[in-house]
Amino acid sequence: MGQPLSTDTPAKALRIGMVGCGNISAAYLETFPRLDAVALTAVADLDMDRAREVAAAHPGVRALTVDELLADDGVDLVLNLTIPAAHAEIALKALAAGKHVYGEKPLAASAAEGQTMLQAAQDAGLILGSAPDTVLGTGIQTARRAIDDGLIGAPVSATATMVTPGHERWHPNPDFYYVPGGGPLLDMGPYYVSALVTLLGPVTSVLGAASSTRSTRTIGSGPRAGEVIPVSTPTHVTGVLFHASGALSTLVMSFDAVATHAANIEVHGETGSLTVPDPNRFDGEVQLRTLGAEDWEVLPVSAGYAGSSRGSACRIWPKPPQANCRAPAASWGSTCWRSWRQCLPPLSQAARYRCSVPASVPPPSASSSRRVWKRSVPPKPPSSTCRIRPSVYGRYHRSTGKTVIPLALEHLFECPWDNCVIDHPPAHDTALADGRASTDH
Ligand SMILES: NC(=O)c1ccc[n+]([C@@H]2O[C@H](COP(=O)([O-])OP(=O)(O)OC[C@H]3O[C@@H](n4cnc5c(N)ncnc54)[C@H](O)[C@@H]3O)[C@@H](O)[C@H]2O)c1
What we know:
Blueprint: E1 14-19, H1 25-31, E2 38-44, H2 48-57, E3 62-64, H3 66-71, E4 77-80, H4 84-96, E5 100-103, H5 111-124, E6 128-130, H6 138-148, E7 155-163, H7 183-187, H8 189-200, E8 203-211, E9 216-218, E10 228-230, E11 236-243, E12 248-254, E13 265-269, E14 272-276, E15 286-290, E16 297-299, E17 315-316, E18 335-336, H9 347-352, E19 396-397, E20 402-403, H10 430-436
Parallel strand pairs: 1-2, 1-4, 2-3, 4-5, 5-6, 7-12
Antiparallel strand pairs: 7-13, 8-11, 9-10, 11-12, 13-14, 14-15, 15-16, 17-18, 19-20
Bound molecules: nicotinamide-adenine-dinucleotide.
């Protein structure tokens, strides 16, 4: 909430004071050097040794106590990376000290705390922001674009499923996941609920049920491995979200299950279904299956910030290996979830890094007609900016022996390819062209 901050030039870099130097701080520390618009100036932690360690590794960054950092004139925004139970306390102190705040998820450990924080920011005229920002990546934004473009018709429902045996297996200090403010709903739910709201609009009411299967957990890694910690919050949560649009989302968030075959998120509409990639990531494949279609199709990236990442658990790729890869220079040397090998067709992946499609993909000849293209010879557009859906290339209808592009998709055609134009079907093909086309191929 609040007005956008001005971070146009390095001279105006937003000065960040980071509170909390634990596990996730590494992701931010890795990302800051790539961003001219921000400058880390100070760090703090209840554990001063952690703050000193970070400061020592980052020239120009000072290790301060929390109170010193909040009072520091060299800090414009407090980055709150503390545990969920401390989010509200730190944020409210920071706002009271006149600092903007951006915090890790969840916004707060309870709805009441969250409301208090929002009100405090509004009263002070300061900006309050919270992770996750993954909804801005190409995965969720491409799914949103598909819904906005009517590819599934009117949205009816969604499912969101996240199951894991628990974070104590890998996190060296997992205590906060198992106390109020933790649990699967407040820990992983923010990714899923943010995505569902991005895709289906605001939620007006909810219902749910929760359970807890074990009263203790055993730490599985780090210096405390083997230590048993108590569980005092639900570890399996199910719920239904009532969207203002009338759509219903069903949610399962669990630290009590081993694995699942369920998609992270599926959205169902009157004429199609979408599978949405992991909302804990910025990218991933969006798949569409329209009514009557024989299979799912992968939608090309059509929206969102390509190559974005919070930076964690990534490998550094110094530069693209291909001369024709036009990945933005800003992402060279940055952290990528995927290797440059994906700077190759298929189009949906090539588009992710804005790579040139190799010249070996021939454009159709001027005389070629979509009507006679067969499934076995998919004429792909030569440009990665072409947004025609793969299933549309050479979409072949057995009953007519023709390939027809549904008029409903006309607005998707924004391709510089000369022949990338709508080939309006003759009258007898109208039934195929008005959206019923997919029922017989
Ligand atoms: N670990 C991850 O992979 C991950 C991923 C995404 C988001 N997050 C979120 O990031 C936040 C931090 O998670 P983490 O894994 O880094 O936890 P962590 O326990 O590793 O680190 C938290 C740090 O905050 C410090 N701290 C706690 N209370 C404080 C206070 N009142 N004042 C100053 N410092 C305080 C702790 O000493 C610790 O160094 C959580 O909200 C979590 O949900 C974590």
